[in-house]
Amino acid sequence: MKANNIAKYVLIVVLIVPVIFLLSRNLNRKFNPKYTIGITTGSEGGGWVGYNYKVNNIEYKGSRKSLKFSPTKKGGRYYVEFSSKSHDVSVILWDQTVPDYIIEAPAEGWIEMPK
After folding, report:
1. Are 80 and 36 in contact (CB under 8 A)?
2. What number of CA atoms fall less than 13 Å from residue 111's CA on the CB side?
C-alpha cells in the first residue's frame, strides 16, 4: 500500500513540475518584457515556425505554433517579446510585423514596442 501511495506522489510531482517551470518562464517574460526584431527561419513541422533574434549581439532561437502564418515563409520580420532577465525566454508576435522603415532594434531591445 505504501509503495502505491509513493508512486502516486511521484507521478503528481512529475506532472506538476514541468507545468510550474513553463508558467514561471512565461511569467518572467510577462513581468520583465523587452522587444526586438525576430526573423523567421521557416517551418519546423506541425505548424511550428522557427525564428531568430539578437539581444546584446547574442543570437537566440525560438519557435512558435502558427495557424494563420505560412510556415514555409522565411525571412519574415516580426516583433519578439523577450524577458529582460532571461533573454532566451521569448515569444514571436505573429500579429505585429515590423515596418520596413525600422531597420534594426537597439542591442538591448526596446522597453516598449515601437509604433
Report:
1. yes
2. 0
